[in-house]
Write a structure and sequence with these properties.
This is CMP-N-acetylneuraminate-beta-galactosamide-alpha-2, 3-sialyltransferase. It comes from Helicobacter pylori R038b. The protein is mostly helical. The chain has one domain. Helices cover 97% and strands 0% of the residues. It is built from one helix and no strands. It has one helix spanning 2-61. It is rod-shaped, with a radius of gyration of 27 Å. The termini are far apart.
């Protein structure tokens, strides 16, 4: 019975270590993907705003 209990404790311990390790890897991976995705969206949005602003100011000057 003691061996069975020890095996259960080892399995639970291993599971929690592996799960937290996987969680941190997946989270940092997701974070980098989401961050670069957001960055490109924000940059393109900013770029289009600047472009339209330049075009409208050019038309006003003409």
């Amino acid at each position: 019975m003691s061996s069975f209990f020890q095996k259960g404790v080892e399995m639970a311990f291993n599971h929690s270590i592996i799960q937290s390790f996987n969680h941190s890897i997946i989270q940092s991976f997701n974070h980098s993907i989401i961050q670069s995705f957001n960055h490109s969206i924000i940059l393109s949005f900013y770029h289009s705003i600047i472009l339209s602003f330049k075009q409208s100011s050019n038309q006003v000057i003409k």
